[in-house]
């Protein structure tokens, strides 16, 4: 699907969204992928604040971090330290879980910042894309 950040490719398996990739091409048009593309289009158009899609969460700490990220409302941010305290895991492990998120945007890893700055972001454009997503969500005033 087209996005303000270039093409995005969604993948589903077993009735769950399993991946959102930056760039590339996809040719599947399952009902779930069509719904996910429609919800993302509404998000980018400013008509959607919450996604309602079945997502494949990873096991263990990564899955716990993914669920914590999904609980952050649009327009808000948290730090790696916030999630570290909430989940009882080292901040470095939280950062690694954020960086391994296979479903960015839908699982909003861009809403996680470091205590001293933006932190990283694995999308093309890196932190510039992260900042653009946060501005789109109205969180620009929260940026460090």
What can you see in these coordinates?
The structure is a single chain. The chain is of the alpha+beta class and 144 residues long. It has a domain at 60-142: Arc Repressor Mutant, subunit A. It has five helices and four strands. The chain has helices at residues 31-44, 60-70, 80-87, 91-99, 127-136; strands spanning 8-13, 16-22, 78-79, 112-113. Strands 1-2 form a two-stranded antiparallel sheet. Strand 1 (8-13) and strand 2 form a beta hairpin. The longest helix is centred in the N-terminal third of the chain and has 14 residues, at 31-44. The radius of gyration is 15 Å and the shape is globular. It starts with 7 loop residues before the first strand and ends in an 8-residue tail after the last helix. The model has no long low-confidence stretch (mean pLDDT 89).
Describe the protein's topology.
Blueprint: E1 8-13, E2 16-22, H1 31-44, H2 60-70, E3 78-79, H3 80-87, H4 91-99, E4 112-113, H5 127-136
Parallel strand pairs: 3-4
Antiparallel strand pairs: 1-2
What's the gyration radius in Å? 15 Å
**In terms of structural class, how would the helical and strand content be classed?**
alpha+beta
Cα separation of the termini: 31 Å
Order of helices and strands: EEHHEHHEH
Roughly what fraction of the amino acids lie in strands? 5-15%
Keywords:
144 residues, alpha+beta, Arc Repressor Mutant, subunit A
Quick structural gist:
This protein is of the alpha+beta class and 144 residues long. It is 36% helix and 12% strand.
């Amino acid at each position: 699907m087209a996005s303000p950040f270039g093409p995005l490719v969604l993948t589903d398996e077993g009735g769950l969204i399993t991946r959102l990739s930056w760039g590339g091409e996809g040719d599947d048009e399952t009902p779930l992928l069509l719904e996910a593309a429609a919800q993302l289009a509404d998000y980018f158009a400013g008509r959607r604040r919450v996604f309602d899609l079945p997502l494949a969460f990873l096991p263990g700490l990564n899955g716990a971090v993914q669920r914590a990220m999904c609980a952050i409302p649009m327009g808000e941010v948290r730090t790696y330290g916030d999630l570290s305290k909430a989940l009882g895991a080292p901040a470095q492990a939280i950062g690694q879980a954020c960086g391994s998120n296979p479903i960015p945007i839908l699982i909003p890893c861009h809403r996680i910042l470091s205590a001293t700055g933006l932190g990283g972001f694995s999308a093309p454009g890196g932190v510039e894309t992260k900042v653009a997503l946060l501005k789109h969500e109205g969180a620009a005033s929260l940026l460090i």
